[in-house]
Amino acid sequence: MFLHKIFVLIIDRTIDRDAKEVDLTRRRIDKIEGFDFLRCIESLCLRWNLIKKIENLHSLVTLTELDLYDNQITKVENLDALVNLEMLDLSFNRIAVIDGLSALKKLKMLFFVHNKIEKIEGLSELTELTYLELGDNRIKKIENLSTNKKIQLLSLPANAIQTIKGLDKLLNLRELYLSQNGVKEIQGLEHNKKLEILDLNYNLLKRISGVRHLNNLTDFWAKSNQVMRSCIWLFE
Fold first, then answer.
1. What is the pLDDT, as a whole number, of residue 234?
2. 134 in Cβ contact with 120 (< 8 Å)
């Protein structure tokens, strides 16, 4: 508790109360507190710390970017007041469930890379979302994205996905990353005609098909699959 008080005092004395950007990377911070005096802040970076809980942010209503990358957070909570938030990075934490985001209507970029997430959920209210990164989790199925129609980038490498589906409402999708999964067949992309990048490296594909209609595709990656070398460019 004594150390907390010292740290809060240091923050209050060293950071301009009118600051729009605050970066406290690698400060060994273990608790979020002492930011109430920041009335104009737009970007708060607390990456590479020891934070276990999201708390004491309710007064930072002007915040548009919150970076909590690589901490020890287990639950998404106490974010309802941050109604202007556009970017949230919770990558490299210990989160198992996507929840507590429904009030963040303006959120455009969301990062949950390297957590313990098993299911895509809790995103239905985020209709402005354009970038969603969920790589290196435990997700088995692409689902619950029908209301997120503005998504342009969806990143799901290093999960446990075997089938490509659940993307039919994502008509604006331009980049899809599915490397290091268990995908056996390219399917479910009939409506994603704006797709420009498709990453299927390190899967279980035996043939290349289901991509002929993707006229905007500029980058297609499918190395380290089970496709015969002589058939790698035969888009059936």
1. 45
2. yes
Helix (H, G, I), strand (E, B) or coil at 2: helix
Q: Are 84 and 106 in contact (CB under 8 A)?
A: yes
Write down the pTM of the prediction: 0.92
Helix, strand, coil distribution of the chain in percent, nearest 5:
5, 15, 80
201 half-sphere exposure, CB direction, 13 A CA radius:
10
In this prediction, residue 13 carries a pLDDT of 55
* pLDDT 10s digits, 35-65: 999 999 999 999 999 999 999 999 999 999 9
pLDDT at position 230: 45
Cα(64)–Cα(62) distance, integer angstroms: 6
Cα 162 to Cα 194: distance, rounded to the nearest angstrom = 23
Q: Quick check: 33 and 13 in contact, CB under 8 A?
A: no
- How many whole angstroms separate alpha carbon 62 and alpha carbon 50? 24
CB atoms inside a 10 Å sphere around CB 195: 24
Strands 43-45 and 65-67: parallel
pLDDT digits (tens, 9 = 90+) for 9-34: 455 557 899 999 999 999 999 999 99
